[in-house]
Amino acid sequence: MIILQLILYCALFKLMVKSAVGNNALNGLYFYPKEVRERVYSLGLSDPGTVSRKRKRFMIPFFLVMLAALVLIIGAWNGVREFWPAYLQALLFLETMNWFDGVVIDRIWVVYSRFWVIPGTEDIPFARTWPQVVKKRGILTAVWIVGAAVPAGLVLLIWR
Question: How many distinct structural domains can be found in the chain?
């Protein structure tokens, strides 16, 4: 059952990213390195204010939906009512999401899909390299060791 839940959680992650960008990679310009954003600005395809607004419009609902889904999976679906089991499940889901983002999104979807290439920026590397992915995901692994306490605590507040 937990494998199915992990797959659904990662599918929700990808669905939210895809719905945020729609059919235009410029809608997700906030995901790109600074060099790409600056070139896009110089080409007149977007501006920093628009990118900042789109980032906020995506990130706030994204974090809230992913947190709510996690709390519902652990508390409602799995019926967990104790802190440590809730914490361990939260940690498993957050780490799976973390590495899913780095490997499947950053290294497979972004690298092998022409969708993410913004015209006029083809000469600028925009996909994370394997060392960059491992470094970022390693840092986030440490962050989630602490951060998993938040959804675990929410599970207890709601269902205990």
Answer: 1
